[in-house]
Amino acid sequence: MISPDNASPFGSFFLGGFECSSHRRWDGRRLDLLASTDHDRLAAQDYELLSEHGIHAARDGLRWHLIETAPGRYDWSSFLPMLRAAEGTGTRVIWDLCHYGYPDDLDIWSPTFIDRFARFASAAARLIKEESRQVPVYCPVNEISYWAWAGGEVGRFNPCGHGRGAELKRQLVRATIAAIAAIRAVDPRARFITAEPLINVEAGLGDDEHARSAHVYQQSQFEALDILCGAKEPELGGAPDCLDMVGLNYYPENQWYLGGSTIPMGHHSYRPLHILLKEAYRRYRRPLLIAETGAEGCGRSSWFHYVCSEVHAAMDVGVPVTGICLYPVADYPGWDNGRTCSVGLLTTADSQGCRTVFPRLARELQQQQALFAAFDGGEDAPVPSIAAE
Fold first, then answer.
1. Which domain of life is it from (predicted)?
2. Does residue 145 surpass a pLDDT of 60?
3. Distance (Å, whole) CA 319 – CA 384
4. Which of 33, 42, 162, 280 has an alpha carbon within 20 to 30 A of 268's alpha carbon?
């Protein structure tokens, strides 16, 4: 069984994540999900609503493109109300510093991008230290691996590159390393998570070469973390202390056949989540966090039940999982077509700014909270230490 030393450091084992993507799509349109979901203006109300359902922690984000109005000049008016809402409601927040979006004047491929991001991270850490009494937790760059593919390989969103995924991945890792150093210089207490996709890729039918390709693709999910901790390409600046808590994002579509369809849960090719978690822990020996998970429509509660059951199975064999983040915790407009994606515990806000709760997911959450009660942390819950090896 898991040790009490691995209690959640976030104040509650379950977290609510607010969609905070702020990238430019392939067609040049800037998205701002904090605004389009109304969370930027309803943050205090949203945090209170989560608290009513036993969730006292969240993932949330800063919008770098709004804050840095000119190089080195910061306007915190879009962020301060959210920061103060978190402090006022006692909500512990993991702050995303770069969730796909960055200022328009920046060339992401240049060294300036890394320098500017480090200075922005330092300024944000200084503000958060001044405004909050809590030990801060940051996700410097969200989903390095996915961004490298979507933004550098297939041109889905900024910087809309093609065939440059490996280059973008390394640039984002360098930026993460620089941000961690800058934040620690301001606040040595700071903790960090990653938020990387956890995937499984199977060959299905095919020859040995196809099987090898599937294996290589699956192993690529670890490349960003391997570079970050210095296990690969140490010349980029990675080191063991750059990898703190390992956040993993897991959705129903995260297992597929190479070049083919999604593997349905329950199929013989589908690998149980607890096995994937155990493998990730053995690789890095760091505390794990389910940094994002969720499903759409009527699948919300059943998917959540599955993830919780698998996390419990992993914890039963000694894998230190520090929490599960419902992501997004509120319904949001789809990136490509603006349709309402009904994924959350909370609905979109009505004309009076009120959200309702999806009852089946709320009931499942309540049941899982009872099962995981032994792992919830209080104000003084210990944060698992970085592994020594």
1. Bacteria
2. yes
3. 12
4. 280
Work out whether strand 255-257 and strand 200-202 pair parallel, antiparallel, or are unpaired: parallel
Specify the pLDDT at position 11.
85
Average pLDDT on 362-370 reads 97
Sign of the C-alpha dihedral computed for residues 283, 284, 288 and 294 taken in this order: negative
Total-model pTM: 0.94
Give the other-Cβ count within 10 Å of 162's Cβ: 9
Each residue's pLDDT tens digit, 229-281:
999 999 999 999 999 999 999 999 999 999 999 999 999 999 999 999 999 99
